[in-house]
Fold:
Amino acid sequence: MVASTTVALCAAIPAHAQLIAPTGASGTGTFSNAPSLIIDNVIPAEGSVYNAATNVFWSGLTPQFTIDYGQVYTLQDLVMSFDNNDTYLIEYSTDNVSFTTLTTVSLGLGEIGFGMDTFSTVLGDPEYVAGIDFVPVQARYLRASATAGDNAYSIGEIQSFGVAASAAAPEPGTIGLLALGGLPILGGVVRRRG
Ligand SMILES: [Ca+2]
Ligand SMILES: [Ca+2]
Ligand SMILES: [Ca+2]
Ligand SMILES: [Ca+2]
Structure:
């Protein structure tokens, strides 16, 4: 009895955000190093130089970099590494055509005065920056670009955290139960009677 009760309770709780494994990353314009470095889960040390082999770096405001999650996710958080003295725009999309601003990492928001700086939207993370946090969105594509700075731009990493949209969607019966106050055990009884 205890085991089945536990299962019923867990089933009503949304799955925890997980590190998303993107299917690819690409870039437009002229830049140095492979866009795959943005999603290789290697975060350069804070204070390291912007033009290291671990980073995608460029000059000018033309280049854009797009990450493909392979499917739509409820995107909940990001951990990002940028050169500290620039401003980077992060946009999201479900169709890779229409993009909406998700957050802007403005120069000076981090705590690093030289080189690469890590920024997190994960509450409680030592690198958390409240000014870049966002409400979860539905996204398959994430696009990053520089919008201001010293013309020496760099991305070391963009890690995404979320839940596959298909997995996050509760079944209709669960929605009704949550509206009634989230009593999954009672729900089980009602369903057996039906
Ligand atoms: Ca990396
Ligand atoms: Ca930082
Ligand atoms: Ca957050
Ligand atoms: Ca810079």
Notes: The chain is about 15% helix and 35% strand.
